[in-house]
Design goal:
Blueprint lengths: L3 H7 L4 H7 L5 H28 L1 E2 L5 E2 L6 H5 L5
Antiparallel strand pairs: 1-2
């Protein structure tokens, strides 16, 4: 039976902070945390590398020049 006190705790304005605070203790996080971390790390690395070598488009739609304009990056088949 779902009591009033349980409902108040469930609808608490602090529930988001509590849920984020206990995220690393979750069983699902413990099982897939390493895989998710690796996947996110590769994705962030590719995005950063592409921005460094291939330039990036800002929020107003203007293409920015790449930070790395070296020939070795182009010869290596980069950006990814």
């Amino acid at each position: 039976v779902y009591t009033h006190d349980q409902w108040v705790k469930h609808r608490s304005p602090d529930r988001f902070a509590n849920n984020l605070g206990t995220l690393v203790q979750s069983g699902i996080y413990k099982q897939v945390g390493k895989e998710v971390f690796l996947t996110v790390s590769v994705a962030v690395s590719v995005c950063v590398w592409n921005a460094l070598v291939g330039g990036a488009e800002d929020f107003s739609g203007v293409m920015q020049e790449p930070f790395i304009n070296e020939g070795w990056a182009i010869k290596a088949g980069l950006p990814l």
